[in-house]
Design a protein that fits this description.
The chain folds into 2 domains: 54 residues, DNA polymerase, domain 1; 281 residues, TIM Barrel, CATH 3.20.20. Helices cover 34% and strands 18% of the residues. It is built from 11 helices and 12 strands. The strands form 2 sheets. Strands 1-2-3-4-7-8-9-10-11-12 form a 10-stranded mixed sheet, with helices on one face. It has a two-stranded antiparallel ribbon with strand order 5-6. A hairpin with a 5-residue loop joins strand 2 and strand 3.
């Protein structure tokens, strides 16, 4: 590792920090002080790492190393269920959104992995936003830290289900998870991280070979290839039969249960035949099914499935041997529910046009 210019220390794993301080002529163990300052104390000012010598702090600054933060943060809290949405402005002016969800002693951050999204799922507001760029590991991590500061509590779960596709930003997402899970940092265990994907097969198979295995959630939304392509255009490149085969390989390698996410859309994918065909499709997969009530937003003509239909759909899956829950709407009044991130900007664009 050579000394580079303008490097965000928040992006670096501990072994990389150790190499860095050695290159600067300091003892390797001092990297631990930097790592703890950033990831336990949530600090952003190198000059305030007083456990380091003044000369090392000066050397870091001289080489243009820094600790990133966001330009601005705006928080909006739901009046209904305690959910909070955060709108962050990145250093380059791009906007991302994250969500804090409370459930008893479970405090979960739903974070973004990209500014915008390139996949254009028809039921998702984020998919209607132009893709801007991948987030760095530091930017993914900083969402967790900003939310934790605002909540005044340590978060104990992170789901990569915000804006963008985590596996389309594979390296930075995995780096963020490793850093957040490190015992010198937040120490949020690997099994308390969940990656949600539209089903990018090569990345799922790559993830199976990693030395860490966060929880995997797959957005399926239909048991039929033609319908899945209509809802999720990326499915044309990752056919359903090949995806199911990849999930089987992933499970065989990791031994981990897979979560299946299924957005319930009225008269689109909510038939009881679809429930039976979904159960048949998943036969042989150890799957946990989340049925998600569709959340309306401008720019999409879909309607949520009727509650009775969702319950009947669930019952068929349960009778087929799949643990199934209905994910009820949380944060809908602040457009923080599943599929709604970015909805305010879509609505403003429609008004402007």
């Amino acid at each position: 590792m050579s000394i580079a210019m303008s490097v965000d220390l928040k992006n670096l794993e501990l072994p990389e920090l150790e190499k860095l301080v050695e290159l600067l002529g300091a003892k390797k163990y001092l990297a631990g002080y930097i790592f703890r300052y950033i990831h336990q104390q949530l600090g952003c000012d190198i000059d305030k790492i007083t456990s380091l010598s003044k000369s090392l702090r000066t050397a870091l600054a001289a080489q243009k190393y820094y600790i990133s933060t966001f330009k601005s943060c705006r928080g909006i809290k739901s009046a209904n269920d305690g959910t909070a949405k955060y709108v962050f402005e990145l250093s380059d002016g791009n906007i991302i959104e994250s969500v804090l969800m409370r459930d008893k002693d479970r405090l979960t951050a739903c974070v973004s992995s990209q500014a915008g999204c390139r996949f254009g799922c028809s039921f998702c507001a984020t998919g209607r936003l132009q893709f801007r760029r991948n987030l760095t590991a530091g930017e993914i991590i900083e969402q967790v830290y900003q939310i934790s500061r605002d909540a005044g509590e340590k978060l104990n779960n992170v789901v990569y289900m915000g804006m963008g596709e985590p596996l389309d930003n594979y390296d930075n997402t995995l780096r963020a998870i490793r850093i957040l899970a490190h015992p010198y940092g937040c120490n949020i265990g690997i099994r308390r991280h969940t990656i949600s994907t539209v089903g990018i097969i090569p990345c799922i198979l790559r993830l199976a070979k990693e030395d860490i295995h966060p929880r995997l959630a797959v957005s399926l939304h239909s048991p039929y290839q033609h319908q899945r392509v209509e809802l999720m255009p990326i499915a044309a490149r990752h056919p359903l039969d090949e995806l199911i085969n990849a999930l089987g390989k992933y499970q065989h390698t990791t031994g981990r249960r897979i979560t299946i996410e299924y957005c319930m859309i009225k008269r689109v994918n909510d038939s009881l035949d679809a429930a039976r065909d979904l159960a048949a499709l998943l036969k042989g997969i150890d799957a946990y099914v989340n049925l998600i009530e569709y959340n309306r937003h401008e720019g999409a003509d879909y309607q949520p499935a009727e509650p009775a239909r969702i319950r009947a759909f669930r019952d068929i899956l349960i009778k087929s041997g799949f643990k199934t829950i209905i994910r009820y709407r949380r944060g809908r009044d602040i457009k923080a529910a599943c599929g709604q991130l970015g909805a305010e900007r879509i609505e403003q664009k429609i008004i402007d046009e």
